[in-house]
């Protein structure tokens, strides 16, 4: 008769289940003794069954006489615990059903909170060995010779044998959260362990464990760190404020901004005889001239002669306009007027133009070029390279400098002969026709040419700019020619009535022996014929001034008016003689 299974019992933690082979042998041995006893009773009268005990030996389960005890007299032996199909899960997961592959699947189980004193094993279960690095259920063993903790308190860092102690006032999670009753357990075989609860994966998780209060030691350290941080912040703020105040007072890292001393603007009047005074008085009467005609155009300067609108300039300034070109006149104040040619002369390189319907004209006063001395200060005003109102200054470097300009035409009609004033005041292309002023702001010359450094061809021959050799037509000659151009539209030229040999290499101007048209070199009845000049005579002086070429003789004669009397020194056959000559006149045509 099989004994009825008793409810599972809770074994102490130290209990261990017997090894699986031992349980199997015990079960088989028990079953063998029951079968042998039954066979012995059936074969009592015959031969001895191999399974029955030998005569004289105590049968299995009987007394000393060999009689089998009655069923009611034999106490029921406790059923040995049934070993599960696999070793218990150290994490508390229950086995899936009873022994045998026919056991039904267990219901979903709910884990229960681990109590503070650890997880209990089911009856007969053997506690698994802890994994490396894990604290065993019974706590951390003390090293040999270590003293046990006082009053049962474990040393620092050691887990007590009964589990982790709760802090004072904390509620045991096992009591606060009783385990949920799970569904009915699957039928357990003999010796089944503790009852397992159902597990619901969708249930709300257990509340978090209360935070452990920080030790007093950490609180003190945190306070000291906070105090140190505040101190550092105060020191940094103080240093930063001091540095900022210093930089603000001293104008930044690089020092204060540089502020140079400067006097206030002055509006004091200038000396009328200074360059500034001369420029202030002369600029309102100086104009800039723009000329366009055909394929040519040019820029020059001029100055106002009178209140009627007459303006004096150079012939080469207005020559591009021809007879139908356009002439634009710009005054110093910005007013623009249209100009027209009144008269011009290429031999003197002078021209007069006129503007109409212009009010407020400021004519420039004229000086006397015969009063000029070398070294006198002068001021040149013009529009070099179309830069209107440019003022430069210098001195008179030389007087009666015989120069020629032009000569670009084959017939030589554009050649001008000037007994010029030389100055070192900078004169550049565009200054032509502008006034050369003395220290009293009076016009003593008309700026006409420069000696260029690039080609050395003389007056107006290059565009290289000033090298300190500028030339101006004396105002005495300019005044006479301007009056003739305004009054008659043409200028007269003084002549002596002879033809000169311009290829003569000697010193002086030699009278030619023949002319290209076959006419006599000394005009009959002319000024030279009346003075007794003959072909091949060499003129060496004019009024006591030495002449070295035919160009110089022409320049000296052109510097006078028709009707002036001149004394000429003439060399004939190696002998010199002086003759008196009255200049004749020839029109500019």
TrEMBL record:
Q: What segments bear the compositional bias annotation Low complexity?
A: 67-76
Q: Which stretches does the entry tag as region Disordered?
A: 1-219, 511-534
Record's Pfam families? PDZ_2, Trypsin_2
Does the keyword section mention Membrane? yes
> Transmembrane ranges?
226-247
Domain PDZ, which positions?
A: 494-574
Locate the compositionally biased regions of type Pro residues.
9-21, 91-114
Record keywords, A-Z: Hydrolase, Membrane, Protease, Transmembrane, Transmembrane helix
Lineage: superkingdom:
Bacteria
Q: Where is the composition biased (Basic residues)?
A: 24-45
> This protein is called what?
Trypsin-like peptidase domain-containing protein
Name its species: Streptomyces pactum
